Fold these 2 entries.
Entry 1:
Amino acid sequence: MSNKIPSTPVNRLLKSRGVAFTEHPYAYVDHGGTRVSAEALGVPEHQVIKTLIMQDEHAHPLVILMHGDREVSVKNLARAIGVKHVEPCKPEVAERHTAYRVGGTSPFGTRKKMPVYVERSILELEKIYINGGSRGYLVGISPADLVALLEPVPVDAATD
């Protein structure tokens, strides 16, 4: 992707709701993850937030937002949300639920309404960078705006 800013469901939603945000296109690298985007933006990887689509034992999908430099403990997440088992969705299933390609998944404007969980410590950051709905494109927003738009449930799901 060039440094052209795409029009996505995410930036259209944020604009329509009057949310202040910054736009950050970067050169997407397959399997580069948040390390690549953090380096491209010159921000700590801890502030780059992963949007992960998972499912419980009944195949009900959910969104978990995690720091780029941390991993989700599926045991901790399952315990925190009161289910027996949580696992990542297969890429094609995640894409069906969200309408976003893996690597460009955003918690905003998903095809299917899903419960959203957020690692509690993300809410303590001043600004976060989260996928803007396209590979190679992040938006910077305040955690307060994330909460206002998504009403996520705070959890302690990071690996110990």
Entry 2:
Amino acid sequence: MKFLFQVLLILNTTIVVSCASKTKQKQEVDKPTNFVIVFVDDMGYGDIGCYGATGFTTPNLDRMAAEGMRFTNFYAAQPVCSASRAGILTGCYPNRIGISGALFPHSDTGLNPNEITIAEMLKEKGYATGIFGKWHLGHHKKFLPLQHGFDEYVGLPYSNDMWPIGVDGKRHPVGKGAGKHPDLPLIEGNEVAEYITTLEGQDKLTTLYTEKAVDFINRNADKPFFVYLPHSMGHVPLGVSDKFRGKSEQGLYGDVMMEIDWSVGEIERALQTNGISENTVFIFTTDNGPWLNYGNHAGSAGGLREGKTTSWEGGQRVPFIVKWPKSTPAGSICSQLACAIDILPSFAKIASAEEPKLKIDGVDITDLWKGDTDLKPRKEVLFYYGKNNLNAVRKGNWKLVLPHTWASYNTKPGTDGRGGPREQMKVETSQLYNMMRDPGEQYNVIEYYPEKVEELMEVVQAARKELGDLNVGIESGVGTREIGKK
């Protein structure tokens, strides 16, 4: 009898433990996923150790890639500031929603309030939302982050070179050149907290943004959250804290990259300390390629052609790392096509959130993040630039470059914060490149593959109908929408 009682007790304990274990597992599965995006300015494809960087080290980013997934064919939405940011936050090609180029302090436009951002989408699901860094989607109050779904904001409303201070630290004459710009406002919430008026004032930005993001994570660790950390660096003028100044072999740009890497480490440490790293989708990527005419103050395109503001690979193909321990295979590499506009629908899928009712261009790539890298959720990438110029399309391994003009970096670069000249160039007739064999876009093979040209031109014609193409005189398409106006 005693033996039977012991057996029953053991069985009962086993059942209780088993049920408790299943309950714990269910709670873990049901726990909402957090999202973090670190978005760097003007950092090239070759500016991370695991992407081939030299002259400085990026141990935290390399570890992030080793514990997550690195993409090799990931594209920014456009190769320039405001447009790229509009794309990552709305899931739309920027020209669909009227955003192009870089907005200036005198601009009276911004992100239309009708557009739904990642923050607004997740807020509907009960997420806390914070942005710490460069906004650049309209500096007037109606366009600022708090009016687009963010609970908290600390950062600059536009690029850090849009101010009246020269590379020598001296103020430009009022009303002349850069002297037309106001002092650089650091905004908290909807109000200016202070003005940055010296080069030394810019040295604090990377650390400031990082500390604000870490504090936000610590305060919201017990609830689902979205952190968007768009660093002002490495946009010129470069600024770096004393803890990294002079630390790299490459010089000031390398120092800046090392501090960006430190920032990634601080975010990961906060996630680990709060026990939420396992259930957080942590993304690192950049807004466009390097601003090459700034020479030793610019990054590397990693062997890709040209850089920022061009539709060649160096302008728009960027590093992308995702770490999601719960789902992403550690140390994996994905070579499938993907774009920054795919992040919003992917977050929607993970958070079981409703996508915007207005049409978007992004596709769900969560299956890639989960390791099913044989899938091809994105079939093509459109390379728009300027107000609405379709300069190229890529489908699979083939890229068709259409007739267009661009400013080339194939000139003598500037040094120490001064930009060198750029040469105006023109693609007279369409060119075809095989991205598998020729990522540097050196060998035009259009005469050998007429069937590929025909296939890619079908993509071009569909894009022109939907979004327009000023290169052929089509100002807008059936799917374009208005930019926000003051």
